[in-house]
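User: Okay, second chain of the day. Same drill as before: sequence in, structure tokens out.
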Amino acid sequence: MFGYVNINKDTLSKEGLATYQSFYCGLCQVLRKKYGVKGQMLLNYDMTFLILLLSGLYELDTVEDEVLCPLHPTKKRPVRINEATYYAADMDILLSWQNFADDWRDEKSVSKSAMMKMYAKAYKQVKARYPDQARAVEGAIAKLHKAEENYESNVDLVAGCSGEMLAEIFDWKHDVWTDTLHSLGFYLGKFVYLMDAYEDMEKDRKKGNYNVLSLIRREKPEGFDEFCRILLVSMMSECAKAFERLPVLLYADIIRNILYSGIWTRFQLVQARKNKKSQGKAGKKHRKPLPLPGGRNKESL
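Assistant: Same drill. Structure tokens below.
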């Protein structure tokens, strides 16, 4: 489910890109510090967005430093680390373990089972440290599994399970901003779930896995892609409205880049792949028959 909450590099300033990268690298450092190399394996852009949002909202004291990175050994990389970085690292463990467990239930993948065991100790530690978040994630996953078993076709109900997870995770401090952060996380979680379902439709069809959007396309094939686009736009519209209600000044340009532009880069990529595939099929279907000896072709036989 990770990888959808990203920046649009083409429309972000050079300074903004450097700041974003420093928070991303800061998360990498904290994951390694808390959980070792296996923690770094979970590094993703989605949690970087959470760090930026919480850092901007609460105007956290942030330590800026430079570190050597094995992937970039010739030059030190700038990093920014604060309290939200540590929180996001823990939430990364919480969500990743559940993601592995979900894949194991769907696919019975040996590799996913191994990943669950690898992060089991870390998951228990985070669960003990953040019982409310863990309870919300586990409860939402249980509801999602029940919906999948029943082949639930109510897209709002199914996507809402992921929304409930992120709503609780975004509500870091349970304070005056609770309702707004809940709303932002809820609609972002729904978007991520639906975007993931949209991208995985073909893969799920081949494997016989449940996919709520496949059920909808089966019932209403006409205008399906446009329906999905409108659905995703409505989710991000509500998410952006919630953000604009927050008094965020720090990093607001980067956050808006993600919410208004970056979030759509993956959708556009998926659309391009779908169009290329459909054009390829159409080309094969309408390909001119090869000529046979004597000036005849297969159609004339």
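The first helix runs from residue 14 to 35.

User: Thanks, on to the next one.
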